[in-house]
Amino acid sequence: MDSRFKNLNKKRYFVILGVLATTTTIWIPIFVNDFIQEDMQKLSFVPFVLPGIAIFIVLELVKRNILSTIFKKPIAVYLIVSLLFMLYLLYIPFVWVGVILFSLLTAIGILVSIDLRKTFLEANVAIDSKFVLQSLYLNGAIFLLIFSSIYKYLEVLQFVIIILNSISMIYLMRERVKLNMSNSRATVE
Predict the structure, then answer these.
(1) 69, 48, 66: which is closest to 57 by C-alpha?
(2) Is 96 exposed, middle or buried (0-12, 13-18, 19+ CB in 10 A)?
(3) CA 90 centroid distance within chain
(4) Domains of the chain (ranges plus CATH)?
(5) Cβ 31 vs Cβ 37: under 8 Å
(6) Mean of the pLDDT values across residues 145-159?
(7) Do 80 and 166 form a contact (C-beta atoms < 8 A)?
């Protein structure tokens, strides 16, 4: 193992970013299959296209400061949408609702990913930036390989990934609250 990896700060972000990155890859084929089962073969491209459109719209809204108060807290919004997505999975068999929620989840996941990568890069500013960026780039591929291998044996992996993402968001929210509390204490003193 490269000694530089041992010196990285916030390594737990690798796991969070890895799980977050695999969500789209695991769920799109499932939704395509759902469209085919619902006898909507001609619309089976929607799970590929709609998340991309949602990402573009959300990034534009953030860029133009429209709904910026909502998207300034992408971790909380991601958690809320992932809980709605889990409710959909349990109670609502309508494929369009799932694809729309999934597209929104994907777009907000990009915001969370940007936020985590920024924090990770800031925490590792003393380490060679090329190494840090390559580590982040390989991270998604490694987790995709791991989860793709597991998916063969664990048919409920897509649900596990959503639950892991929700737990990760709770962890990140807790971490941010602790950081804000310690920063407010430091300013009071």
Answers:
(1) 66
(2) middle
(3) 21
(4) 10-184 (1.20.1250)
(5) no
(6) 85
(7) no
Q: Distance between CA 143 and CA 111 in Å, rounded?
A: 19
Q: Is the pTM of this model over 0.70?
A: yes
Q: How many CB atoms lie within 10 A of CB 21?
A: 19
Helix (H) or strand (E) holding 3: helix 3-6
| Distance from the first to the final alpha carbon of the chain | 42
Decide: 162 and 23 in contact? Cβ < 8 Å. yes
Question: Cα–Cα distance between 145 and 122 in angstroms, integer?
Answer: 27
Q: Give the pLDDT of residue 3.
A: 66
CB 44 within 8 A of CB 28: no
Alpha helices in 64-156 (DSSP H): 68-71, 74-91, 95-123, 129-151
Tell whether the model's pLDDT for residue 2 goes beyond 80.
no
Nearest CA to 89 out of 68, 105, 77 is that of 105
**Which residue matches tokens 């804000």?**
180
Whether 43 contacts 135, CB under 8 Å:
no
Mean pLDDT of 105-111: 93
Would you state the structure tokens that stand for residue 135, as one six-digit string?
């580590």
- What's the CA gap between 151 and 75, in Å, rounded? 26
Q: Which residue has the tokens 């809320």?
A: 80
pLDDT value for 1:
53
Chain-centroid distance, C-alpha 36: 26
